[in-house]
Amino acid sequence: MSQRQRLAALGVCLILVGLNLRTVFSSFSAILAEVQADAGVPGWAVTVLTTAPVACLGIFAPLAPPLARRFGAERVLLSAMAILTLGLLARPTTFPGLGSLPSLLIGTAACGFAIALGNVLLPGLVKRDFPHLLGLMSGLYTTAIVASAALAAGFTYPLLAATGSWQLALGAWAVPAAVVALVFAPLAWNGREPLHTAEGHGPRLARDPIAWQVTLFMVGQAMMSFSVFAWLAPILRERGVDGATAGLLASFSIILQMAGSLVAPSLAARLARQSAPNVVAALLTGCGFALCIVGPLGGIWAWAAMLGLGQGSLTALALTMAMLRTHDAGTAARLSGMMQGFGYGLGSTGTLLVAQLRAATGSFTAVAVLFAGVGCFAAVFGALSGRHRYVGSGAPERATERVR
Asked: What are the TM regions of this chain, as residue ranges (predicted)?
């Protein structure tokens, strides 16, 4: 391949990888009631299965930068796709005498590990290979990530209805992951040198206030995003919406996320400061989720639209901050590891708090109050992280390259 052909192929592969990074979350929640009824999954296990994947993202995210330095980012990303395929296949397996719960737990944990690596490496690869297309490529791969959640939310229940098997409905999502791994394998095996910035070099992120502001912005985003993936459909069904319509509403909301995630990074890359879009996206997401929980059912499609546009923009902006606030690909990857390690680690408490508040109060009303507050939290740190500064400098950015 010529360099131009290689970059084009890499760009397509990164987008295809993104199309598989959220199916594990929304596919399970779309048929949660059916899995509980058929497999006899206890309440504690439901809490674990909705919380553990996000916790895995936080636990394993810091491993991605050193692995990329050692083996090359493309090869680590390929390995992540292989592990994701195996995890998706293992998740619906039933062991004789043990039932489905062990495989659900093991497969979900494997998927969380694989997705953690992919989440961290994608921004670094975009920063390294597409420095003049940050807005466009950020929008495309984050839109792909959102689309993966939309596809799983919208098609898992119909797959269950068509096959009569929740195992087949969940296991089907291993097919696209396997296809992407096969397509990506030749390019990844001959990948470039590892991402720049060796261990011990570059800004000390743990002492950098901008790095922490971006990280806390990510915490708020993750708490809302993964709670929506895990709980929106069950919340709607508890409010009296039938399973098919709840799946359509969740899918509709997530599809609108695609519009927000496609436009927001390009807009952010053209602005000197991203504080205003960060704040608007955070408040739209928090209010939209709260209204989906307690707002009149007559306006549920409007609330879902508000949530979708806000959440798509918020997710894309949070991920884009790792590239806009750094000078080089290595620092971008390290910041991505830090913000996703803390972001998803603390963000996993969102799904746990939903379960605990529901159990303690008997309804989801308290959850609406919680996420209105989380939206305000994300807005504060979105305003701070959107200021015109670089990690490691503390000074206003110098526009050294034109970003399209």
From this structure: 43-64, 76-95, 101-122, 134-160, 166-189, 210-232, 244-264, 276-297, 303-324, 336-357, 363-384
Tens of pLDDT, residues 287-306: 999 999 998 988 999 999 99
Structural contact between residues 129 and 10, judged by C-beta atoms closer than 8 angstroms: yes
Q: Are 351 and 272 in contact (CB under 8 A)?
A: no
Q: 222: which 2 tokens? A: 């993750």
- Answer left, alpha or beta for residue 164, where phi above 0 means left and psi between -120 and 50 means alpha: left
Closest residue by Cα to residue 200 from 339, 393, 345, 69: 69
Residue in the structure block whose two tokens are 């399970």: 28
**pTM for the complete prediction?**
0.76
Please report, for the chain, the start and end positions of each structural domain, with discontinuous segments joined by +: 3-385
Q: Which CATH class name applies to 3-385?
A: mainly alpha
Alpha helices in 164-274 (DSSP H): 166-171, 174-189, 209-238, 243-270
- Tell me the pLDDT tens digit for each residue of 79-132: 999 999 999 999 888 766 667 788 888 999 999 999 999 988 888 888 888 888
Round to whole Å and give the CA distance between 387 and 397: 9
Residue 53 contacts by C-beta under 8 Å, 6 or more apart in sequence? 24, 25, 108, 109, 111, 112, 115, 226
Instruction: For residues 105 and 144, give the distance between their C-alpha atoms in angstroms, rounded to a whole number.
Output: 26
| CA dist 302 → 38, 42, 152, 315, 370 (Å) | 34, 34, 22, 20, 21
Q: Which position has the higher pLDDT, 117 or 226?
A: 117
What is d(CA 136, CA 30) in angstroms, rounded to the nearest whole number? 31
What's the count of helices (H) and strands (E) in the chain, helices before strands?
A: 16, 0
Highest mean pLDDT among 1-5, 44-48, 84-88: 84-88
